[in-house]
Amino acid sequence: MAGSILEIKDLHVAIEDQEILKGVNLTIKGGEFHAVMGPNGTGKSTLASAIMGHPKYEVTKGSVLLDGEDVLEMEVDERAQAGLFLAMQYPSEISGVTTSDFLRSSINAHREEGDEISLMKFIKEMDAAMDYLDMDKNMAQRYLNEGFSGGEKKRNEILQLMMIKPAIGILDEIDSGLDIDALKVVSKGINKLRSESFGCLMITHYQRLLDYITPDYVHVMMQGRVVKSGGPELAQRLEAEGYDWIKQELGIEEETVGQKA
Amino acid sequence: MTVDTKLPYEKDYVSKFSDERNEPEWMKSLRLQALELADSLPMPTPDKTNITKWNFSQFKHKAEGQVIKSLDELPDDIKVFIDMENHDKNLVIQRNQSIAYKSLSSELEKKGVILTDITTALHEHSDLVQRYYMKDAVAIDENRLSALHTALMNGGVFVYVPKGVVIEEPLQSIFWQEDNEVATFNHVIVVAEENSSLTYVENYISHNQDQQAVANIVTEVIAHDNASISYGAVDNFAKGTTVYVNRRGVAYRNATIDWALGQMNDGHTASENITHLIGDDSTSHAKTVTVGRGHQIQNFTAKIVHFGLASEGYILQHGVMKESASSVFNGIGKIEHGASKSNAEQESRVLMLSKDARGDANPILLIDEDDVTAGHAASVGRVDPIQMYYLMSRGISKTEAERLIIHGFLAPVVKEIPIKAVREQLTQVIEGKVY
Ligand SMILES: Nc1ncnc2c1ncn2[C@@H]1O[C@H](COP(=O)(O)OP(=O)(O)O)[C@@H](O)[C@H]1O
Ligand SMILES: [Mg+2]
């Protein structure tokens, strides 16, 4: 089967009645790696959260389609089951629920009832993925994200990504707070998923991540919109020259979403 | 007084009841004395819950139960509490008021350990029982229910561990209220002599939905110098039973009493769990979980009183409230004058699953001494929508996500329950009550 297609069309999103996204258009196909870059406060996390269905974000206009199905009509769990995955910038901590129990529930949620993964197979797959990500095995028995360092949380997000194997992965600042070794390991995990059946949207405000995961397309967000798109060379120019030239080109003074819509 | 003051049973009845059981004279006179007191004593007054209208007087007092030859004869819902694989069990099964099954490993028997029903203990160890029965922990004249309990006591177990005996494997009681109307006036005594240690776990089970019954339970736990007692319980009385359960501990020098109580009754429940840290360096952890549902009203008072120097008391109460259930959690740490260097911590947390449920978390600290440390925390809240979002973003359904969060919330207490079979059973009961 060829990969999935995620189409984001004229997406407008508000938080507490303030408009944050003001018409985002993006299409991500299986096999493609897209990078969304932009300074802080330009709406990148809002885009990711709205696609996944975060309860605080309200879509006021536009559409999100996954293989032609209306994602915005789906509950959060249905979006995941349809093939979406979001590695969150700030994953929740859940006391009393072990990482391993949570992972097993997640995997089973993607399988038919009666076709649950066997415990043996699950442990084997989890161990392999944890080895691949250089993770301490004890983490599986610790409570989900509770007391995890920033880096451990990021690895845990990628562990989930690797085990769930979604059709479309959205990674929100997966590189923030990682030292160079951790960044390499995490990138290795993401690169392992590269195939025709996996499309990826990486959100970052550093070029650094893109040294390890080469994107096919690069988009720049400002003021709640995608203001420029290009190939990997765009990321390199941003690395060398910063964002000012884009602002000048577009006549933008303040790149963030701004207090007043 | 608002309750009908007429006692359900008369002097002649009590006297005859004692005779039928061939009880020692001291027991009979204690019963009669208590019966007289019951008439004039007030009902207990758990803080913030009015129990005066609850049914503590309508019940049947006597019911026999059949002896079983082998554990295989037990119904499945009792079997689940037992580690069936282990053939060297230390177990008492009480069926109504009869002992259906009893076993104690010969090794423990040789060491002088006693694990037996209260009636047998009164015959075989009368002096020992008398030494502890309503003496150091609970008094007969505390209130009307403690007096009634003494007068009408109809079951329970006696556990005694001699000096220096350290028991690894748990001792277990199962109290099976098979008859739908019979009252449970159980008396449990656990004594650990100096330098001994034990783990005890008990289960209360009934199935009465519409038939009314009463449970009026007193438990007295005594840890002598350097002794350590780990006490686990899963209370699972059905809706028709009104419960008053009084679990009390006394810890002497450097002794430890740890409680892990799964309070899963379906009827109105007033639970008191009080530990007196008498000795220097004594310690207690009092952990409890509960799930309230329907129109259930419950009051859980956990209290640790510090008398000894450098004594440590930790209270942790977790409750989940659904439908129209209403619960009060009082976590009380009291440090008496002279108990310097003591530490008292209370934590009460309630998770509300419906808008009609009510939960009240009251950590209370009463300090009569300067040189101490103390802390408390309380929260009453709903399931966090951001946590739900995180779990659901991995494909987990809303119901399953909520289930994970609830089990996670109760885990700090559930994981302390000593016997694996009982722990798993408690998880099942929680599952059944929440969904
Ligand atoms: N929960 C929130 N409540 C109110 N405003 C928010 C919230 N989250 C984000 N914002 C605002 O939305 C804008 C975009 O935020 P975000 O999408 O997180 O940016 P980025 O991920 O690009 O740094 C910012 O101006 C921020 O202040
Ligand atoms: Mg962000």
TrEMBL record, chain A:
Keyword list, A-Z: ATP-binding, Nucleotide-binding
Q: Which family does it belong to?
A: Belongs to the ABC transporter superfamily. Ycf16 family.
* Ranges where the ABC transporter domain occurs: 6-248
> Which PROSITE patterns does the protein's record reference?
ABC_TRANSPORTER_1 (PS00211), ABC_TRANSPORTER_2 (PS50893)
What Gene3D superfamilies does its record include?
P-loop containing nucleotide triphosphate hydrolases (3.40.50.300)
Question: Is Oxidoreductase set as a keyword in this record?
Answer: no
This chain belongs to which protein, by name? Fe-S cluster assembly ATPase SufC
SMART domains with a match to the protein in the record? AAA
Q: Report the superkingdom from the record.
A: Bacteria
TrEMBL record, chain B:
Q: Where is the SUF system FeS cluster assembly SufBD core domain?
A: 177-409
Q: Which PANTHER family match?
A: FES CLUSTER ASSEMBLY PROTEIN SUF, UPF0051 PROTEIN ABCI8, CHLOROPLASTIC-RELATED
Q: Which family does it belong to?
A: Belongs to the iron-sulfur cluster assembly SufBD family.
* Annotated protein name in UniProt: Fe-S cluster assembly protein SufD
The gene coding this protein: sufD
Return the SUPFAM superfamilies for the record.
Stabilizer of iron transporter SufD (SSF101960)
Q: Give the matching InterPro entries.
A: Fe-S_cluster_assembly_SufBD (IPR055346), SUF_FeS_clus_asmbl_SufBD_core (IPR000825), SUF_FeS_clus_asmbl_SufBD_sf (IPR037284), SUF_FeS_clus_asmbl_SufD (IPR011542), SufBD_N (IPR045595)
Domain called SUF system FeS cluster assembly SufBD N-terminal: residue spans? 21-172
Q: Name one Pfam family in it.
A: SUFBD_core
